Amino acid sequence: MPEQLDKYDRQILTLLQKNGRITNQELAEAISLSPSPTLRRVKQLEESGLIDGYVALLSARKLGLTLMAFIGISMDKHTPERFAALEQSLALYPEVLECHLITGQTADYLLKVIVRDMDAYQQFLLNKLTRIEGVTGVHTSFVMKSPINSTALPVIQS
User: Fold this and answer.
1) Regarding the domain delimited by 67-142, which CATH topology (the fold level of the hierarchy) does it fall under?
2) Where is the HTH asnC-type domain (predicted)?
3) For 85-106, what is each residue's pLDDT tens digit?
């Protein structure tokens, strides 16, 4: 699919990642194309699945969510059923922003979690995370600063 992207498609994808609410007129002007073909291109990018959807990015701090952590989880069994059960449980917790099955570490999973404060983290850890069947180890690293924090994917030329 990426090899089919021309310079206009790449520009559209880059601009939409920066501002998903940009009007078609503004988008067309920014890429020096008329509105009609710009809209057609956006629709094609959506239909092809390159654009998964649109979201509003919220301010965690203004919502009172000030403590972010990366949590490594070790499992007792490495079976598809055990992994599926863990993933289903984690999907129920809004504190879990990301969940990754990983290799090369002592942990099986790496989570990105956000909570209000240390008390909320302790409640999450003790009342939710460690109660999931199969979890044998939890190692947490707390985020002190996030100098780079982007949701934009690089739209590269092939």
Assistant:
1) Alpha-Beta Plaits (3.30.70)
2) 5-66
3) 999 999 999 999 999 999 988 9
